[in-house]
Amino acid sequence: DTAVSQTPKYLVTQMGNDKSIKCEQNLGHDTMYWYKQDSKKFLKIMFSYNNKELIINETVPNRFSPKSPDKAHLNLHINSLELGDSAVYFCASSQGSGGTLNTGELFFGEGSRLTVL
Amino acid sequence: AQSVTQLGSHVSVSEGALVLLRCNYSSSVPPYLFWYVQYPNQGLQLLLKYTTGATLVKGINGFEAEFKKSETSFHLTKPSAHMSDAAEYFCAVSGGTGNQFYFGTGTSLTVIP
C-alpha cells in the first residue's frame, strides 16, 4: 500500500497546454506539500497545505494552482505550460500542524516527471 | 532562519571504502536534522534523523550521522560503501514555523567497483 501516491508518473505535453498532477496520502497526515526538483536535483518547495488550508506559498507563478479537496489529497494544476516548467514534481506529507514546530519527517511520493516540448 | 550547505556536489568512493558526506547547517532555533536518499527515478526516502537526545544517530543501510552543535555539522558516514549506495543524498533542517523544511543542494554519490 503506497503511502504517498502521485499520478501520473510521466507527463509529456506541448507548451501552452494545461495539466494536472494528483497526490493522495494514506498516512493520516495533516500537512501536504509540493516540491519541484530541477535538472540539477535542487529541491524547491512550492506549496504547503495544512488541513486543506494554504500555509506556504513560495514565489511561484500564478499559473500554478494547488487544490486540496480534503487533507488526504493535494492536487497541482498548471496553466499555460512553459519550457521552464519541465521538472520532476514531488508531493510529500508530514504530521504536524501549521505554525508549530514540525519534528516529523517528510514522506515523499515517487515524483511526476513533466516534460514540456 | 535556517539553511543547509552540503560540501561537494559529487563524491566518488571505491567499493568498500568509507563514505563521508558533509552537511553544515545554520539555524536560529534548535535544529531538527535529516538525511534523505534518492535512488534514480525514485522519491526521497528518509535515511536517518536527529531531533533530540543522543547525538550519534543510526539509520538504514548502515549509515549514521553525528550532530555536532559546536561545528554546526551533521555529516553522514558509512564504514564500507556498497554499489547499491550510489544515489543522491540530501541533508535537511527544520525548526521554523509552518512545517518548513530546508534542503541542501544534494550530493551525488558514485561507488566505483
List keywords for this structure.
heterodimer; A: 117 residues; four-stranded antiparallel sheet; B: 113 residues; mainly beta; six-stranded mixed sheet; five-stranded antiparallel sheet
User: What is the overall silhouette of chain B?
Assistant: globular
Helix/strand order of chain A: EEEEEEEEEEE
Principal-axis shape of chain A equals globular
**Measured on Cα atoms, how large is the radius of gyration of chain B?**
13 Å
The greatest interface here is: A-B, 29 and 27 residues
Largest sheet of chain B: 6 strands, mixed
Determine the oligomeric state from the structure: heterodimer
**Alpha-carbon distance between the two ends of chain B:** 41 Å
- The residue-averaged pLDDT of chain B reads 91
Q: In total, how many beta strands of chain B?
A: 11
Helix-strand makeup class of chain A: mainly beta
DSSP strand (E) fraction of chain B?
Answer: over 45%
Instruction: Round the Cα radius of gyration of chain A to an integer and report it.
Output: 14 Å
Largest sheet of chain A: 7 strands, mixed
Number of strands of chain A: 11
Structural account:
The complex is a heterodimer of chains A (117) and B (113). Chain A is an all-beta fold. Chain A is built from no helices and 11 strands. In chain A, the strands form 2 sheets. In chain A, strands 2, 4, 5, 6, 9, 10 and 11 form a 7-stranded mixed β-sheet that branches. In chain A, strands 1-3-8-7 form a 4-stranded antiparallel β-sheet, with no helix packed on it. The relative contact order of chain A is 0.33. The mean pLDDT of chain A is 89. With 113 residues, chain B is mostly beta strands. In chain B, 37% of the residues are buried. Classes of the chains: A mainly beta (117), B mainly beta (113). Chains A and B meet through strand 5, strand 9 and strand 10 of A and strand 4, strand 5 and strand 9 of B.
What is the topological layout?
The complex is a heterodimer of chains A (117) and B (113).
Chain A: E1 4-7, E2 10-13, E3 19-25, E4 31-37, E5 43-50, E6 53-57, E7 64-70, E8 73-78, E9 87-94, E10 107-108, E11 112-116
Parallel strand pairs in A: 2-11
Antiparallel strand pairs in A: 1-3, 3-8, 4-5, 4-9, 5-6, 7-8, 9-10, 9-11
Chain B: E1 2-7, E2 10-14, E3 19-27, E4 32-38, E5 44-50, E6 56-58, E7 64-68, E8 73-78, E9 87-94, E10 101-103, E11 107-112
Parallel strand pairs in B: 2-11
Antiparallel strand pairs in B: 1-3, 3-8, 4-5, 4-9, 6-7, 7-8, 9-10, 9-11
